[in-house]
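note to self: dont lose this again. the chain is below, predicted strucutre after it. 223 aa total, dont forget to put it in the shared folder this time
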Amino acid sequence: MDLARWVDTAVVRRSTAHDSHRAPRREQIVVAAAGAIEQYGAGVGTAQIAERAGVARPHVYRHFDSKDDLESEVLRFAATQLIETVRPAMRHSGTAPAIIEGVIAAAVRWAAENPNLYRFMAARQQTKATHRARLGRTRFLGEVVAAASAYLRTPDVQVEPPDGVMAGLMGMVDAGIIWWLDHHDESQDEVVTRIAHQVWLVMSDLAQSVGLAIDNDSLLTVP
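---
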């Protein structure tokens, strides 16, 4: 976990001197909580978080409004890590199946390296906190929608993939990756290929619905 790369001004950049003083400790606890979840699972206790953060156990929640507040910040942290892993694959040119496979491969790789954090995120995908942290337009879904929109754009057609369609795709991807993490009944390459093919089928249908003819060999570029 690279704390220096996690910058969320809406969360840790406060206007008052008191909040500015608290921000570094909040970040420290969030990173510690993410590490503890990865080590022990989503049921990690406050004691393990406090130990990793180097603070007394009663001090953990002095910096957060509630347990839900801390979990929301961990979700933001994990989502940012995932975004930074997947984003380069969203900027490549190539055929649609190849681009999709690159994105899925990056997501699966991150999940394989952070299985408990990925489970933590996926298990909370229907909660309000996750919708704010992960599905909000400024977070991971926003990145996916922006990338898809860039590919699904011509001089005559501007496509903005519906959030519901993209959120459904994310749910499908989550389910496939979690199944693989739990069972390992396929190789990593096999699960990437299978999930990427499923995503391509949905995206191809979306493109056709707005009159874009994209086949397996069509070369897509991002401006």
